[in-house]
Amino acid sequence: MVNKWSYETRQASGGLLRFKIKVTKDLFAVGPEYIALVLTCVISSVTGGGWVASKVLARSHERVKQAHERLRDSEMRLHEVEEQVKRMPIEYVLKVDFLREIQQMHDHFKEINTKLDRMIEKLLR
After folding, report:
1. Are residues 26 and 49 in the same domain?
2. DSSP tag of 15
3. 3-class DSSP state for residue 28?
4. Domain match, 81 and 68 both
5. pLDDT tens-place string over residues 68-111
6. Rounded distance between C-alpha atoms, residue 100 and residue 119, angstroms
7. Structural domain boundaries, residue 80
């Protein structure tokens, strides 16, 4: 493996240093340290990618479970509301219906009262 490094330093505007690096390598001559470095990078990227994928999948699974629970809770509340609506005619009455029934009772009592008055008049004669 042949490496040629040459450094040129120049001061640029603003006081920054720039480095110019020239590297010339023989492409087919690879030492064991480069093989180890490449294997280490591949293994770490595969395991890191697996870890990230497992975390993403776990998070999405948790979100699906939460959405399922919210949906089940919504269904339960909807069922309770439907049951209340079914019981509504039995337990509740509209104001108009209530007033109509009261008026009918009042009319019925008037009829009873007039009948009683007639009967008392007949008895007193």
Report:
1. yes
2. S
3. coil
4. yes
5. 999 999 999 999 999 988 887 776 778 888 899 999 999 999 99
6. 29
7. 4-92
Each residue's pLDDT tens digit, 31-48: 778 788 888 888 888 788
Considering the domain architecture, whether residues 46 and 73 belong to the same structural domain is answered as: yes
DSSP 8-state secondary structure symbol assigned to residue 36: H
Residues 6+ apart with CB under 8 A from 19: 7, 8, 9
Here the tokens at position 37 are 């470095």
Number of compact structural domains in the chain: 2
Cβ atoms 27, 34 nearer than 8 A:
no
First to last CA, the chain: 143
Question: What are the CA-CA distances from residue 111 to residues 39, 104, 114, 120, 123 (Å)?
Answer: 105, 11, 5, 14, 18
Q: What one-letter code names the amino acid at 56?
A: V
Copy the structure tokens of residue 49.
């990618």
Question: What are phi and psi for residue 117, nearest 5 degrees?
Answer: -60, -40
In a shared domain, residues 16 and 55: yes
* Residue given tokens 């890191």 in the structure block: 48
R_g of the chain computed on alpha carbons? 46
- Contact assessment for residue 25 and residue 1, using Cβ atoms and an 8 Å cutoff: yes
